[in-house]
Amino acid sequence: MKSTISTHFRGQQIYTIVSTCAPLSHTHSFSVAILPRGVNHFFSDQIEALSRFNPEEILLFNYRPTKQINIPIREIWTKESLSAGEMVNIAMTEAKTPFVFILWNDIELNAQDVSHHLFLKLEERGDLCTTPQFYNQNGMPIPSLTLPIFPPNDIFRVIRTQHQESQTAKTFITLDFCGVYNRARFLNLGGYDPQITSEYWQKVEFGMRASMWGEHIIFNPALGVSYTDTIPVDDESITLNTTLFALKTLEVKMSKRGAYLPWKSFFWLWKEKNGWQMFKELRDWVLENRFRFKSDALLVVDNWQSYPRA
């Protein structure tokens, strides 16, 4: 099959896209983007299985399928190792459809029918992202619903629980970055922050910023995915990434003139090299987006309730 090759720049990231010449049908509302992790010897079979759900196209990172399928495929080759959040940002920028389903190469889609009706429903709701129910490689459910808390003597935590109902519910973060994203809302939110290099704190900052800006991430138990290998474990270590998360969200205050970052919040960075410059840039970012904040982090956590049922 013939292909076209093009080089792209996104910030400081350089990546090359190899596209099959199969034309897009423009009849399906979602694409699939698959992120790389480890080695999956059955990856081509997984891609073939995904093609049966009739996505508009499949975007692959740093992988060339060994089997030919009828769905248009774009291979995205990066020059350097990128965080999951950075890869999602690229996928959302490059996708041609209103919705993008983010998966990993070691995750299989369980749903019997990812129908056009599902995406119509997602569009009607207008949510930022719909996350799936996760299962381990033995088919056992994994706690997939998340909520934020301020525990005693700790800065902030996200806890996971098992959803006991068949209906949808509001959830705080995208577990393992997986889910069906509303592309326009994602790009409007600004995507994942590439300056936060910890993938755990990338997800937490994205979830808190989304909530503070009035967006919703929804857990849908009818959408199931299964790990084919070991379940990855988040690194929740407190680092500079935690500080960046806190200054972009937890430390932001509300006023009649919009959101602002108090000068006293500099104490988070006073020991860091170039801490003052970092703080000024963060403060300017909050000022630039001051009218996009609908509430502060404390109100988000205090008012955490289930989203209206689907």
Describe the protein's architecture and organization.
Helix 5 runs parallel beside helix 6. Helices cover 26% and strands 25% of the residues. The chain starts with a strand and ends in an 8-residue tail after the last helix. The strands form two sheets. Strands 1, 2, 3, 4, 5, 6, 7, 8, 9, 12, 13 and 14 form a twelve-stranded mixed β-sheet that branches. Strands 10-11 form a two-stranded antiparallel sheet. The chain has helices at 43-51, 84-94, 116-125, 183-189, 199-212, 240-250, 275-288, 297-302, and strands at residues 3-10, 13-20, 30-35, 58-61, 73-78, 99-104, 107-109, 129-135, 141-142, 145-149, 157-161, 169-171, 179-182, 217-227. The longest helix is centred in the middle third of the chain and has 14 residues, at 199-212. Residues 4-9 and 306-310 have low confidence and may be disordered. The radius of gyration is 20 Å and the shape is globular. Strand 1 (3-10) and strand 2 form a beta hairpin. Among the domains are: 1-105, no CATH class; 240-302, no CATH class. The protein contains eight helices and 14 strands. The protein is of the alpha/beta class. InterPro entries: Nucleotide-diphossugar_trans (IPR029044).
Structural class: alpha/beta
Which H/E pattern describes the elements?
Answer: EEEHEEHEEHEEEEEEHHEHHH
Report Rg. 20 Å
Helical residues, percent? 25-40%
Q: What's the total helix number?
A: 8
Query: Any idea what the shape is?
Result: globular
Task: State the end-to-end distance.
Answer: 43 Å
Strand content: 25-35%
Given as residue ranges, the uncertain stretches (5+ residues, pLDDT < 50) are: 4-9, 306-310
- Let me know the largest β-sheet: 12 strands, mixed
Average predicted confidence as pLDDT: 87
How many beta strands in the DSSP annotation?
Answer: 14
